[in-house]
Write a structure and sequence with these properties.
19 strands; 7 helices
Length: about 375
């Protein structure tokens, strides 16, 4: 599989660089006759768009998406997918490549400068090229298409930790997530974070974050055992996001401190005959297959590597240098990673749905007849 392509039946290939003329993606494998217009995609891109608050990069990109293939008007005049590859394009309009002229031959600490040069013998120093988080805009666009494929699934993301400051989960309020610039579900935490991040930004520094993404309405049976596990596919997708350094499913790392009794997601029979789980430590996935419970994942984003504080580095000729990264950067790249995480969840689930349907059709009805 190409290192620019993700997925199996629902496949997403992204292209373009941070300071190139445009970025884009091709979504292949989308079923036909699904209503899809640019407005279905734009709302999700607007959530990720830069320059919307003092807590994100001030690069002004409208991120206006164009659908250039894979759709047409049906007999009723509704624009729908045709089954052909869907190409999506976003023009870059606010590049300032001159900001990066001084580091053309220097390796910024925490960035992919050295590794790209070591692998290819050439690197795009203008904002990082392909390694820039600018690429994630196309993941969000593709994720909007994926949501149409799994329209019965509700996906929501939230920032649950900024730097050392975690939310009080007992005060979680979904309605708060879209009311503050942090996608924070607790109003009081968002107020504290604003003060904290102002201090980080004024020091010319940065901080990390933890994002939680939950998918509700995923039926049991999606995913495959052993090498096609839904949680493994999801972990791979989230780890592929720029600056992500850890992923956990369900209770994740904390299950190591639980006893077997505490960790077991016990079951009873619901009124509809389906098993009802009494907890969800597993994050909605057992044996690599969805249980019907909410699929829960969290990922940790490292502090933004582009900071104004001078750091020790070397250049491509071996000389030692001290450098500070100029330009416009997020003091916490984790904020705008929330819609990106949602998109990757949607892409994984769309792929899992199509693969499941292709292998077994509809899931068997519950409960099974006695003796089967």
């Amino acid at each position: 599989m190409s290192h620019n392509t993700f997925g199996h039946l629902f496949r997403v290939t992204t292209f373009g660089e941070s300071h190139g003329p445009a970025i884009g993606c091709v979504v292949d494998g989308c079923p036909p006759r699904i209503p899809l217009g640019e407005t279905d995609i734009q709302g999700f891109l607007d959530k990720r768009r830069p320059g919307q608050s003092r807590f994100t990069t001030q690069r002004q990109e409208p991120d206006a998406v164009r659908i250039v293939s894979g759709v047409m008007a049906d007999a009723a005049g509704v624009q729908v997918t045709t089954g052909a590859p869907i190409a999506l394009l976003i023009d870059n309009v606010d590049q300032r490549s001159k900001d990066y002229g001084e580091i053309k031959a220097q390796y910024r600490p925490g960035h992919a400068d050295f590794t790209y040069d070591a692998k290819y013998g050439i690197r795009d120093h203008r904002g990082g090229g392909r390694s820039s988080a600018r690429e994630t805009a196309m993941r969000v666009a593709a994720g909007a298409v994926a949501r149409k494929v799994v329209s019965g699934v509700r996906i929501r993301g939230a920032l649950v930790q900024l730097g050392p400051h975690k939310i009080d989960r007992s005060r979680w309020d979904d309605a708060e997530i879209d009311k503050n610039p942090f996608f924070c579900p607790v109003a009081e935490a968002a107020t504290l974070w604003a003060e904290y991040l102002d201090g980080v930004r004024k020091r010319g520094s940065s901080c990390g974050a933890v994002i939680e993404v939950v998918a509700e309405g995923v039926p049991p049976g999606w995913g495959a055992p052993i090498y096609g596990k839904l949680d493994a596919e999801l972990a791979s997708a989230l780890m592929s996001i720029n600056a992500v350094k850890a992923v956990e499913i369900g209770d994740g790392m904390s299950v190591a401190a639980l006893s077997g009794e505490e960790n077991a997601d016990e079951m009873r029979t619901g009124t509809d005959g389906m098993p009802t789980f009494l907890s969800n430590h597993a994050g909605g996935i057992l044996g690599g297959i969805s249980t019907g419970q909410p699929v829960v994942a969290r990922f940790a984003v490292k502090p933004t590597s582009s900071i104004l504080t001078p750091r020790r580095a070397v250049d491509r000729f071996g000389a030692e240098v001290d450098l500070r990264t100029k330009g416009r950067h997020d003091p916490c790249v984790g904020i705008r990673a929330v819609p990106v995480g949602e998109a990757m969840m949607a892409i994984v689930l769309a792929d899992a749905f199509l693969r499941h349907r292709g292998q077994v059709g509809e899931s068997p009805r519950w409960p099974f007849p006695p003796g089967t």
